[in-house]
Design goal:
The chain has a single domain, classed as 4-Layer Sandwich (Metallo-beta-lactamase, Chain A), CATH 3.60.15.10. Helices cover 21% and strands 27% of the residues. The chain has a 7-stranded mixed β-sheet with strand order 6-5-4-3-2-1-14. The protein has a 7-stranded mixed β-sheet with strand order 7-8-9-10-11-12-13. The radius of gyration is 17 Å and the shape is globular. The protein is of the alpha/beta class. The chain binds zinc ion (2 copies).
């Protein structure tokens, strides 16, 4: 399983960090965890085979996490050669079906019927959802917005947990227990800590509480960049910590 941190930023305009988007590939599965603005051009920049994307999984409905989704469907409709036949599956917490159908009222019917099959499914909390014979997805509610979830991807070689946007949560730490890679949001410096986001220290505490093998930090607002987030998180978590940049690559297990 490979992870590429395509967009490690937020809604805050940044020359170096695009809004939330993370690419996970394993065999034929090509999954986007969130699809924030700017993602498509970053996918191209990093040489990722975005026309082969199989699933888009949304963590919640803030537009810095989904607003590139219509552009992705539009690009798959008009720029893939030969024209795409394979289905695209869009998953998210309950409400994602309604979100995409509502978007289609503004964008046009092509968003639901772009010339290849589109499947949209509300995923129920803590019910494993098979992606193929080997890999499954599971979500866990987190304290951010009412619909917000963390996303877990489990395959034979290990488990990746992406927090999405979240505040501190003992529940999330228990659910993420023993994960091989924890991809955690790291929005704000400690001096600006709020209940609906993590700081470097709180991301480190989450990784320690979960017993994660590795911590990768993402979703940086500009003020947190004035500190050294990886070093701060490392004061609470003994394992390897990386403050990801757009385009960084990580491997889980051998494939
Ligand atoms: Zn966000
Ligand atoms: Zn958010």
């Amino acid at each position: 399983m490979e992870l590429v941190t395509v967009g490690t930023g937020t809604v805050a305009p940044s020359a170096t960090r695009t809004s939330a988007c993370h690419w996970v590939s394993r065999g034929r599965l090509k999954i986007l965890l969130d699809c924030g603005p700017g993602a498509l051009h970053r996918l191209a920049q990093f040489g990722l085979p975005w026309p082969e994307v199989t699933h888009v999984v949304l963590s919640h409905f803030h537009p810095d996490h989904w607003a590139e989704l219509p552009m992705l469907v539009y690009a798959l409709k008009y720029t893939t050669v030969p024209p795409r036949q394979e289905p695209l599956v869009i998953l998210g917490p309950p409400g994602v079906v309604r979100l995409v159908k509502t978007l289609a009222e503004g964008y046009g019917e092509w968003l639901l019927d772009p010339g290849f099959p589109i499947g949209i499914l509300d995923v129920r909390d803590r019910e494993p959802f098979p992606l193929d014979g080997d890999m499954s997805l599971e979500t866990c509610r987190v304290p951010h917005t009412p619909e917000s979830v963390a996303i877990g991807l489990t395959g034979p070689e290990g488990r990746l947990v992406y927090t999405g946007d979240t505040g501190p949560s003992p529940d999330l730490a228990r659910w993420a227990a023993g994960c091989d890679l924890l991809l955690a949001e790291c929005s704000l410096p400690e001096a600006m800590a709020i209940e609906s986001h993590l700081t470097p220290l709180r991301a480190g505490e989450l990784a320690r509480g979960a017993g994660a093998k590795q911590l990768v930090l993402t979703h940086f607002y500009p003020p947190v960049e004035t500190s050294d987030p990886a070093r701060e998180a490392g004061t609470r978590f003994q394992g390897p910590v990386t403050a990801a940049k757009d385009g960084d690559r990580f491997r889980i297990g051998g494939r």
